[in-house]
Amino acid sequence: MSEEQDLKSNYSADNIQVLEGLEAVRKRPSMYIGDTGVKGLHHLVYEVVDNSIDEALAGHADTIDVRILEGNSIRVEDNGRGIPTGINKKENKSALEIVMTVLHAGGKFDKDTYKVSGGLHGVGVSCVNALSTDLKAEVHREGKIWMQEYKIGVPQYDVKEVGNTDKRGTIVTFTPDPTIFTQTTEYKYDTLAGRLRELSFLNKGIKLTLTDEREKLDDGSYFSETFHSEGGLKEFVAFLDDTRTSILAEPIYIEGIKNGVPVELAFQYNDSYAENVHSYVNNINTHEGGTHIAGFRRGLTRTLKTYADKEGLLKNVKMEITGDDFREGLTAVVSVKVQEPQFEGQTKTKLGNSEVMGSVDVAVGEALGNYLEENPKEAKMIINKVILAATARAAARKAREMVQRKSVMGGSGLPGKLADCSDSDPERCEIFLVEGDSAGGTAKQGRDRNIQAILPLKGKILNVEKAMEHKIYENDEIKNMFTAIGVSIGTPEDNKALNLTKLRYHKIVIMTDADIDGSHITTLILTFFYRYMRALIEAGYVYIASPPLYQVKKGKDFEYCWNDAQRDAAVQRLKGAGKEDSVHIQRYKGLGEMNAEQLWDTTLNPATRTLMQATIESAAECDHTFSMLMGDEVAPRRDFIERNAKYAKIDA
Ligand code: 0RA
Questions:
Q1: Which of 149, 213, 517, 593 is catalytic?
Q2: For 159, which of 14, 94, 248, 388 could close a Cys bridge (C-beta 3.0–4.6 Å)?
Q3: What sequence ranges are listed for the domain Toprim (predicted)?
Q4: 628 in helix, strand or coil?
Q5: CA nearest to 622, candidates 45, 38, 191, 34
Q6: Which of 513, 538, 621, 623 does the annotation list as catalytic?
Q7: 293: part of which helix (H) or strand (E)?
Q8: How far is the CA of 328 from the centre of ligand 1 (A)?
Q9: C-alpha separations of 623 from 188, 357, 404, 454, 578 in Å
Q10: Pocket around ligand 1: residues whose beta carbon is below 6 Å from it?
Q11: With 90 as the cut, is the pLDDT of residue 241 above it?
């Protein structure tokens, strides 16, 4: 039988199975891609890109081109071998069709490939196919172009040859199904760029390009960036710290295979007080850490301590030095590749494989030991920093104890400025952190006192990115937030494991004016949460209120509007047959301009308001953004603000 005939025959039992598989994906998409919101939508792209990364890691591709097309379709092209198109004897179908339509078929045809990339859900491109209204697969292989198209995962024709080529590679173009992604089908350039940049650092040598073809620039071209790192994690650490002041001339870089586990890591010290350790397993961000991080910490502490003791650098040091002191001002990225990873923890992002701990520990011990011997000047700088951290920690401990003692003595211990709610079930309760006393007053009048508490904050809160730890516990606004919210003050290090059992509200809502100062205050508060109460964000308890920008009014009729397009539409609606100037537009410059009733209607009322939930999409990206926005250097901050200016509203 010729291949052509073979392709056309036998649409039988197999196909029914395929349809059932893809039907399952469409019925319960969240089981396969996590959710059907913004995250899941972007996950589709990562799933397709991961296949190309695998091909590159196998040594057959070095370029991946991602495009956001008009209408929010996505096109991913690589220069790999191309998905095989020949007939698979057992299934009697083209391998391409099997890869695109059978759940978890991805690895079937290439057992030898060292396959370790693959998203958290690692479900394969067939899921993307099932969740797309249209998908087209194009393969350039052995001089020929092959093609197949699908609708919601169903092939529209057999794989066919459509031309000749001198290229190699796979091109997948898909359109996410709006009946699945009901929240939005709009791709965020920055989200995709963040992940591709991360992938370029994690997989050095691969060139990843992202182009936004939804909108032409003034010169007729499209906005496009290429992410390509030859230095890998070393460059990743330099990128994360680009707005901080480094202690070492270059990050310390370690790469090797220990007990069969490929370990790659890089770290640097900076003059800040925060610890920023990011970890990855098979290119997946392990937010909750795990055995690889435990191994890293153990290796770091032991090796530095041994060196310091041997050189007599600690002989005049009185206070105790803890593991935390070795990690103050540390920025690190740890990446391991594990054949059969076990993921544990609340969000399944904690590595459980116990053998990995030793691998990382040994890798750090060997390489760092050598580094310290060869670079005594740098070694001394690191140890001095550790001693300084221990000294500061003693001061911080004192300040923290003072706060806690005071709160024990002062009656309920709740801040005087807090207008608490009467309900005491945290699940129903909300606290609004409000900018300024005047807006705080309006909010107190307008709220539902059963379930809504108000804590007014004085102007700009302390920038925790730049302050020393003990200053943070001495700051009134920050103390008030800790005590009102009901979490005990922890150290930055245990912030990830914050004790939430005494949490008093399950919604913590930041409410500031809709202007530049307001967004600065929101950023300051988010930075504080990110550095000192990250568990609150991770558990989904932190929200941002969205007060309206305009009230459009004609006689007794009025509408609230949150953006200019809504405002223009409201003007048209209200004006009706009347004149334009019969409609009055009020631009709210701040929360203070609304009365209690208006604030309730637009921003507080749970039935009608919109809250934005704060999430951590990529901890590394967040870290970089926060340090840049809150740090000392002005130029990168100005660039960021200019790039994001179209989202911001400049006050007239
Ligand atoms: C299995 C076998 C071979 C290539 C691939 C998979 C492959 C898959 C994807 C997905 C996106 N891009 C890809 N590139 C290649 C090739 C086996 C061979 O040629 O011997």
A1: 517
A2: 94
A3: 429-548
A4: helix
A5: 191
A6: 513
A7: helix 291-310
A8: 44
A9: 19, 25, 29, 29, 52
A10: 51-52, 55, 78, 80-84, 109-110, 170
A11: yes
- Among 260, 239, 261, residue whose Cα is nearest residue 251: 239
Residue 41 is predicted with a pLDDT of 97
Q: Is 517 assigned a catalytic role? A: yes
Q: Give the whole-angstrom CA distance, residue 371 versus residue 266.
A: 12
Q: Name the closest-CA residue to atom 10, ligand 1.
A: 51
377: left (phi > 0), else alpha (psi -120 to 50), else beta? alpha
- Domains of the chain plus CATH, in order, are 13-228 (3.30.565.10), 233-393 (3.30.230.10), 413-547+611-644 (3.40.50.670)
Q: How many CB atoms lie within 10 A of CB 320?
A: 9
Report CA-CA distances (Å) from 213 to 199, 217, 310, 644. 22, 10, 60, 18
Q: What element of type H or E holds 147?
A: strand 144-151
CA dihedral 555, 558, 562, 566 (to 10 degrees): -80
H or E element that contains 191? helix 189-202
pLDDT tens string 532-560:
888 898 888 999 998 998 999 998 899 99
Would you call 568 a catalytic residue per the annotation? Answer: no
pLDDT of 649 strictly over 60: no
113, with CB counted inside 10 A (0-12, 13-18, 19+), is middle
**96 C-alpha vs ligand 1 centroid, how far in Å?**
9
Examine the residue annotation and report whether 427 is marked as an active-site residue of this protein: no
Tokens (6 digits) for 358: 């030793």
Encode burial over 519-530: b for 16+ CB neighbours within 10 A, e otherwise. Answer: bbbbbbbbbbbb
pLDDT tops 60 at residue 359: yes
User: DSSP state, 172?
Assistant: E
Q: Mark whether 435 is an active-site residue.
A: yes
User: How is residue 273 annotated by DSSP?
Assistant: S
Q: Which of 115-124, 220-229, 541-550, 570-579 has the highest mean pLDDT?
A: 220-229
Residue 17: is it exposed, middle or buried by C-beta count within 10 angstroms (0-12/13-18/19+)? middle
* Average per-residue pLDDT for the chain: 87
Cα–Cα distance, 11 to 15 (Å, whole number): 6
| Cα–Cα dist 16/30, whole Å | 23
Q: From ligand 1's centre to the CA of 139, what distance in Å?
A: 10
- Render pLDDT for 64-100 as a digit per residue (tens, 0 to 9): 999 999 999 999 999 999 999 999 888 889 999 999 9
**What's the rounded Cα separation, in Å, for the pair 35 and 184?**
12
Going by the annotation, the residues of the binding site are 435, 513, 515
Question: If you ran DSSP here, which 8-state letter would residue 604 be given?
Answer: I
CA distance 36 to 42: 10
Model pTM score: 0.77
d(CA 573, CA 575): 6
Closest atom of ligand 1 relative to the 61 alpha carbon: 14
Q: For residue 148, what are its two tokens?
A: 């197949």
Q: What pLDDT score was predicted for residue 38?
A: 93
Please state, in angstroms and as integers, the Cα–Cα distance from residue 607 to each residue in 32, 362, 603, following that order.
31, 56, 10
Number of residues that this document lists for the chain: 652
Quick one: average pLDDT of 507-534? 87
DSSP-H helix ranges across 28-94: 29-33, 38-57
Q: How far apart are the first and last CA of the chain?
A: 75
